[in-house]
Amino acid sequence: MSNTIIIGNDPAGAPVRIDIEELLATRLLVQGNSGSGKSHLLRRLLEQSAALVQQVVIDPEGDFVTLAAPFGHVVIDGAAYGSAELAELAARIRRHRASVVLALDGLDLEAQMRCAAQFLSAMFDAPRDQWFPALVVVDEAQMFAPAAAGDVSDEARRLSLAAMTNLMCRGRKRGLAGVIATQRLAKLAKNVAAEASNFLMGRTFLDIDMLRAADLLGMERRQAEQIRDLERGHFLALGPAITRRPIAARIGPAQTAPRTSISGLIPPPEAPAQDMFALLHADLQDDTPPPTRPAPPPPEKLDSLIDRISSPQAPDLPAGAPSAPAPAETLSREEMDAALDDILAEMIQDDEAPYRPAAVTYQDFTVRCRMLRLPANSLSLAGFRRRFAMALGGFNGSGEQSEAEQAVLDLARAVPDDLLAPFLCIARAAIDQQSCPNDEQLAHIYGTRSPGRVRRMLEHLEKSGFIVLRTDFGGRRSVGLPGLNLSTAPQEA
């Protein structure tokens, strides 16, 4: 599965790509005046990467709630829950890797800042075993990380700024990759903006913003004028996840649209002034109460929302699409294990799979499960690591095992997770009476390119009593499994 998405095209028509895996490590800053196309850019990014990585959107205007139906995002109305409930929801989002949109359009500015701060801080404080990769998209970031004090209380500003700083400065190690969009760089706190390594700069007019954008793009100051001339939906791109040299990008179309979008002009009704006056004053009484906004729909109950986060449903398929596979509820345990083995077998065909962090590989696994209508939590992270190591070592988690295979798997319960794959690879060679795997083969299974680490790994397995190393006079290595009467053939020259 490719890690890159197409965000748009350059002036020559060539696709402009973003490497999502690199973006998780280097973060993204988007700048552009109102109407420059920032929200459309974020929407395109979210739609194209929805199947690759978990997404959390901080949405102050409620523009991104339309992602829910086609892409399965869970919409959380920030105005409907208290501080403790939001913290619990954020913790469950990290645990279950649900993609969500936190809609804050029902709150005033200070309440939005407090709500976003509580939500981001709870995600940041998740336990280490839940540090899964996730894109955290914050629209109108200057509201949550202002460069100067405004009309809100100092406490709200401090909480919100601290949460945004943690996201951009320390979030990478916790799997949280910040994608922030702002109308003006001058309004955004510098310690938040400085942590982004990728930039998409749209149209802006003030000299201070043009100069800062040009500095970030590595352009000379006399070139900053071209930022003022950018058309709507056009951005200058730079960064390790996009390009090493600044390029112009025209953002491609999006599948969804904001809830309230006005395109084009709507002429006023053609009516004589006298008729319009009469229409406005008809039945008007002095005691007529002022018009009121319709009451919003009641918020979703917390228990129902937690259920949807814990087991998100697949989006509805468009008309005419091929029918989906049978849901997991109709599969037996044996069929489920066989399906998981097929997924793992497909994953290990990628030569780079053993070298990736476990959390990244697990995210790939959960995406593949959802594509087959299997529950994303079919295996916990710990269970996945061992099943993935078994697949790398040549063992299946389903089907009947031979007596020798079962004996090896019983012994393997005591082998640490990070050493399990090379141990099982050696055991498979011993069961099949094949030659001992060489250092290059073991290094690939072990997820390293260092021969020294392979030698230290073998020495550790031997000191722990899991294997016995033998070397003949010709320097050929063979490995025995104590207590199982199994041994590999000597290593081939």
From TrEMBL:
Recorded superkingdom: Bacteria
Low complexity biased stretches: 314-328
InterPro entries linked: AAA+_ATPase, ATPase_Atu1862_pred, HerA-like, HerA_central, P-loop_NTPase
Protein name per UniProt: AAA+ ATPase domain-containing protein
Lineage: Bacteria, Pseudomonadati, Pseudomonadota, Alphaproteobacteria, Sphingomonadales
Biased composition (Pro residues): 288-299
Signal peptide start-end: none
Organism: Sphingobium lignivorans
Positions of region (Disordered): 284-330
Every AAA+ ATPase domain range: 24-214
Family matches, as PANTHER family: HELICASE MJ1565-RELATED (PTHR42957:SF1)
A Pfam short name: DUF87
